TrEMBL record:
Protein name, as recorded: Diguanylate cyclase (GGDEF)-like protein
Residues of the full protein shown: 287 to 567 of 567
Transmembrane segments: none
Residue span(s) of domain EAL: 24-280
Domain of life of the native organism: Bacteria
Length: 281
């Protein structure tokens, strides 16, 4: 360690020698501070109607620039947040921040902003927190109706306590929100839950979308998911659309919505609003 001169290199070398638990602890401590000090940010990625191209929603995605100015990916810090329980305050912050931004867009648009915001809910939040109360509080604080929110859940949320989750989901539906099953196709395989739970949208995981055009098996899977959704009266969103051909193919297959770098990367709130207002003129 002492022989490496550049701080960057030293840090990399040291972090490799740290044991996992210790690293996790330091991320956890920093993450707690970041949440408390307001250092977290949300970025917003548009979700568009594939047939018309109209932006219908923006997914709110957490971003964290740590004390050394390094932007950390949610793929790295969300699992730490879940294991430590910090996902509860982080998730509550994300919900309130998403509602605040939506109310700000409404105000800027003179009250005629019609998009919704999609917020991710972790399985841990659904188990531990009184999620419906938390969501209602965010809606009330910013004077928003529930139909302006889509809540994205993953299949892992359903596995642990199906009855309790069903109850929570109904309470969320009672608020008027829409519910989306995120990363569909990557988790739990017992599809019986689709009948029982009030799900409005299936979000087809990016792993089935990328490389779709050159993979007949993926086409078969996507077709099957689309027909399943349609039979159950659900809408569909394809994640990770990066090319025009993909967007066209998915529209032709009957997928309802699309999200991906083709349209926009996740953007800071002001840039997302600029994109939205440009698309509405
Ligand atoms: P997700 O909910 O499935 O979000 C979509 C992810 O795909 C985002 O990654 C987005 O940036 C990425 N993505 C979108 N379009 C494309 C594309 O065309 N190509 C590629 N390669 N990627 C694309 P991100 O922002 O890194 O978030 C990763 C995951 O972290 C999310 O997956 C979600 O599960 C979780 N996450 C993010 N923010 C929150 C949060 O506030 N709360 C909770 N519970 N989870 C969050
Ligand atoms: Mg999501
Ligand atoms: Mg997703
Ligand atoms: Mg995904």
């Amino acid at each position: 360690v002492k022989r490496a001169k550049a701080t960057g290199r030293t840090e990399t070398y040291q972090s490799r020698t740290f044991d996992l638990a210790r690293r996790q602890f330091s991320i956890e401590t920093e993450l707690r501070q970041a949440i408390e000090s307001g250092a977290m940010r949300l970025h917003f990625q548009p979700i568009s109607d594939l047939a018309s191209g109209r932006i219908v929603s923006f997914e709110a995605l957490a971003r964290w620039k740590n004390l050394r100015g390094v932007e950390l990916s949610p793929v790295d810090f969300i699992p730490v947040a879940e294991e430590s329980g910090l996902i509860v305050p982080l998730g509550r912050w994300a919900m309130h921040e998403a509602a605040r931004v939506l109310a700000e867009w409404d105000q800027k648009a003179g009250g005629c902003c019609d998009v919704s915001v999609s917020v991710n809910l972790s399985a841990i939040q659904l188990q531990r927190d009184h999620v419906a109360g938390m969501v209602r509080e965010a809606l009330d604080t910013y004077d928003l109706t529930g139909d302006r929110l889509t809540l994205e859940l993953t299949e892992s949320a359903i596995v642990t306590d199906p009855d309790r989750i069903a109850q929570t989901m109904r309470a969320l539906k009672d608020l008027g929100t829409r519910l989306a099953m995120d990363d569909f196709g990557t988790g739990y395989s017992n599809l019986a839950y689709l009948q029982k739970l009030p799900i409005d949208v299936l979000k087809i995981d990016r792993s089935f979308i990328s490389g779709l055009l050159s993979d007949r098996d993926k086409v078969a899977i996507v077709r099957a998911v689309l027909s399943l959704a349609s039979a159950l009266g659900m809408e569909t969103t394809a994640e990770g659309i990066e090319t025009n051909e993909l967007a066209q193919t998915l529209a032709a297959l009957g997928c309802t919505y699309g999200q991906g770098y083709l349209y926009a990367r996740p953007l800071p709130a002001d840039q997302a609003y600029t994109l939205l207002s440009a698309s509405r003129t």
